[in-house]
Amino acid sequence: MKIKNICCIGAGYVGGPTMSVLAQKNPDIKITVVDINQDRINSWNDENLNDLPIYEPGLKEIVNEARDRNLFFHTDVEKAIDEADMIFISVNTPTKTYGKGKGMAADLKYVELCARQIAKVAKSDKIVVEKSTLPVRTAQAIKNILDNTGSGVKFQILSNPEFLAEGTAIQDLLHPDRVLIGGEESPEGKEAIDALVEIYATWIPKEKILTTNVWSSELSKLVANAFLAQRVSSINAISELCEVTGADVNEVSRAIGMDSRIGPKFLKSSVGFGGSCFQKDILNLVYIAKTYGLHEVADYWEQVIIMNDHQKRRFADNIVSTLYNTVSGKKITFLGWAFKKDTNDTRESAAIYVADALMNEQAEITVYDPKVSEERIYEDLDYLGTRSPEENRKLLKVVKEPYEACNESHAIAILTEWDEFKEYDWQKIYDSVIKPAFIFDGRKLLNPKEIKEIGFEYYAIGS
Fold first, then answer.
1. Is residue 82 within a helix (H) or strand (E), and if so which, with residue range?
2. At 209, which helix (H) or strand (E)?
3. 279-286+298-460 placed in CATH 2.40.37.20
4. In this predicted model, what pLDDT tens digit does every residue of 98-111 receive, in sequence order?
5. In degrees to the nearest 10, what's the CA dihedral of 260, 262, 264, 265?
6. Is 155 strand, coil or helix?
7. What kind of fold does domain 5-204 have according to CATH?
8. Which helix (H) or strand (E) segment is 383 a member of?
9. Would you please indicate which residues are annotated as catalytic (active-site) residues?
10. Which end of the chain is more exposed for a tag (fewer CB within 10 A), N or C?
């Protein structure tokens, strides 16, 4: 089966970059990315490539090459579905905020809406690919909807989870550790799997393309993120032990990371992990385990989240206690709001929760982030519902220049590991802040020796 026309429903952090790379590597396939958000589609079509809705190193160059050649962005979802041989579902699957499974289970309403729209529109056989992160056995629910249309159209459901890290998404797409494709164990399922394999095989060696049944593929995505997040929470737990014993978490990480059985990745202690995947996927795993009565399994994985929340709380508490047990009316500078460097994504960023805790203590926060907009920062705070939007704007302001952010500050907190922060004139910053001058390095980004020699009181996670 040769695929000539692909539709992707969802132009977000996964759909946009993934389809851009697929289009670049498969110029003979027409790829259309559709989204009901007109503003987002307008941004993808913007002539100024610096105004794309997602910031990822290398993305604008790929979009520039493929856009309007075989890569298109628009809002006509039904037309794209009708014309496609293969449809990727790449919509948001947030944690439920209501009803059964509230706070843990994945909310599949957008996925179901996609399936029903495909069922309504499709007039020819389609391959439907789950790209969104989904709980195990979601494919069966999608298939039930699609197979009960009465139209006689046949559908094959594939699971093709993404394993992208924001900030390195393009490199992860161009040079993946593996591509995972799960499908039905039938001749038709095998044919559908092979069709998707051939698309990826235009640039990825076939030995890196793994094929499984659908359920294994769906579960593998949740488990991969759970294992990675577990490592972060594990080293963060050790960072607290380091602080009270005189050990240095960087030295501990280096020592254990050289053990080939453990390895060095995801052993960097910080103020806590964020992003759209880790917390959501672990909570999903916890909910699945509880659904099947596996309470010890659920408790085990839930502890990873508990540890991450604790790390954010104690970072905020340390700022308050160090500043003589009060931050009321004091200016605290936040360098960074994104959950990690090289992305403008702020979902579950530690900065949101640290800011919220300090604002509860009446701190006056000034934020500088090189890629995150003022509008996004206020949306993040308003979503928490801790205080009114007016109070949030009174206690927190956003500036576009780092030295302005630091001027006359009582303390500087580094919340994102942007490389540019290392290059600042820290002597100039020291001269502009209120003394004693405090830096709380939530990413262990700066050189402690140099910073202390300038005159700062320097506090870092895990030392």
1. helix 77-83
2. strand 209-213
3. no
4. 888 888 877 888 88
5. 130
6. strand
7. Rossmann fold (3.40.50)
8. helix 374-384
9. 277
10. N
